[in-house]
Amino acid sequence: MADLPLDSPRVVALKSRLFPWWDDNARDLPWRFGRATPWGILVSEVMSQQTQMSRVAPYWITWMNAWPDARALAKASTAEVITAWGHLGYPRRALRLQECARVVAEQYDNRLPQRYEELIALPGVGDYTASAVLSFAFGTRIAVIDTNIRRVLSRAALGVESLGGAATVADRKLANDLLPRDSKESNVWNQATMELGATVCTAKNPQCEICPLYEKCNFVAAGKPGLAEGRTRPRQHFKGTNRQVRGLILHALRSKTDMEPVRYQELVKLWPKSAQLDECLMSLDADGLIELLPDKAIRFPK
DNA sequence: CTCCAGATCC
DNA sequence: GGATCCGGAG
């Protein structure tokens, strides 16, 4: 792959168009523009893993109001945490976030560490989240690699469709090659590129006609070869899967106003296939999302 | 139907 | 690398 020097005309042109677009079009999400602590930024990133930002915002406000810092979240009950997670999906993220809060509270005196190696060692924090926190919360110059940035950079700079699947070495090299040298600019670059991918340069139907990069986009110049052919991930069903059943089970628990257990008989009415139901009860119990009682009644863990 | 600001396990 | 884990907006 050809190198793309930072000072190449193409990169300068992309930057000069992307930054003004960001100034005019950045969504006013509650954790942006210096209004959140580093911990708040981390919470927003964890909530946003596989969940759209627009859905995250109201949950984040309620969550941060209840538990403003890691110490507060560390002291919450599991039942409160799972309930507050609501319908964000993938509730194991909520448990990991609380585990993360405990580590931060106990080992880091309630302050997020600022080294990549320490961040990525935290529960529920992978490469993306660690990089995002470093860039967005601490202003560190680091390339953020997510599905949006991979798609935008691959299209605009290389003129080819992003393949999807796990991030490749080439993806990382490209993101690092294009990342502005100045830390403040790199922060804006990361956020603006992600925002563009989320709102304009989308996977299936990009709105090229309103894209600030249109005139300089190599993907447009090449005639958008293979648009949306690269699957972002293997197709995932939902209906009939254990994920649906697990969701139904947790919804039954959440809907209880008190901490009263849910009887197995009620669960069977929600999902008559008892073998799958039992499997899901076992896995939820193993995950620590429910407590399985001897008669197959369930309740939230303490 | 599609896709999502991923992490984790195998 | 592949599979699993949720749920809603478009």
From TrEMBL:
Residues covered by the HhH-GPD domain: 47-199
Entry's family note: Belongs to the Nth/MutY family.
EC numbers on record: 3.2.2.31
GO molecular function: 4 iron, 4 sulfur cluster binding; 8-oxo-7,8-dihydroguanine DNA N-glycosylase activity; adenine/guanine mispair binding; metal ion binding; oxidized purine DNA binding; purine-specific mismatch base pair DNA N-glycosylase activity
Top-level EC class: hydrolase
Listed cofactors: [4Fe-4S] cluster
Entry-linked InterPro entries: DNA_glycosylase, Endonuclease-III-like_CS2, Endonuclease3_FeS-loop_motif, HhH-GPD_domain, HhH_base_excis_C, HhH_motif, MIG/MutY
SMART domains in UniProt: ENDO3c, FES
Transmembrane region(s): none
PROSITE patterns given in the database record: ENDONUCLEASE_III_2 (PS01155)
GO BP annotations, alphabetical order: base-excision repair; mismatch repair
Keywords, in A-Z order: 4Fe-4S, DNA damage, DNA repair, Glycosidase, Hydrolase, Iron, Iron-sulfur, Metal-binding
Protein name in UniProt: Adenine DNA glycosylase
Catalytic activity as recorded in UniProt: Hydrolyzes free adenine bases from 7,8-dihydro-8-oxoguanine:adenine mismatched double-stranded DNA, leaving an apurinic site
One Pfam family, short name: HhH-GPD
